[in-house]
Specification:
This protein has 7 helices and 7 strands. It is α/β, with parallel strands linked by helices. It is globular, with a radius of gyration of 16 Å.
Length: 192
């Protein structure tokens, strides 16, 4: 059984923000599952869940900074090996549109990843990182002192960014499907 977790914040006010890219990718993955399964809210697991025969798609409903609570509940309840856990999240340190996949490593200040690491007691899981850029790279280094990452990630994408974002979401879906079939090493070779 594989678990693919998209990180984001529940609620309409967050729906199209930069921080909700993980949710958007798992929603698109859900559209490709050939089954009669539908999304349901599982209060016990504190998540929105779509389950297929060999795959769980998960959207934690604990808000980004507490994502680890839901992820740990799911991993522990279903006794999923960490090698079968894939977490999809936005990444400030990657240019807009860039996708990277890796296993383990630091959080780069991403509070959702920090929460997962803290609740699982390890960073040894696969992450699909979706570049959202940052105000610094868009406006120049002079804005460094004024950059507020917590505000930036909760903003919607600019109109001129939306085509690139749509392409990135489709690319992330392709990458995750490939990853599920072929494993991490082959995926890194194919997509990097």
């Amino acid at each position: 059984m594989k678990i693919v977790v998209g990180l984001g914040n529940p609620g309409k006010q967050y729906l199209v923000t930069r921080h909700n890219l993980g949710f958007q990718v798992v929603e698109e993955l859900g559209k490709k599952i050939p089954s009669v399964a539908s999304w349901s809210h599982d209060e016990r697991l504190k998540s929105k869940v779509l389950q297929d025969q060999q795959l769980f798609l998960i959207e934690p409903q604990t808000y980004m900074n507490n994502s680890g609570l839901a992820v740990a509940k799911i991993v522990n309840f279903y006794k999923i090996p960490l090698g079968d856990l894939i977490v999809i999240h936005d990444e400030l340190d990657l240019p807009l549109g860039k996708i990277k996949v890796k296993q383990g490593g630091g959080s780069a200040g991403h509070h959702g990843i920090e929460s997962i690491v803290a609740n699982l007691g390890t960073d040894d899981f696969v992450r699909v990182r979706l570049g959202i850029g940052n105000q610094i790279s868009q406006q120049g280094e002079k804005d460094l002192a004024f950059f507020d990452a917590s505000h930036f990630v909760l903003e919607p994408f600019l109109p001129q960014e939306k085509t690139k974002v749509k392409t990135m979401i489709a690319g992330a879906v392709d990458l995750v499907e490939y990853l599920l079939k072929n494993g991490l090493a082959e995926t890194q070779n194919q997509f990097h």
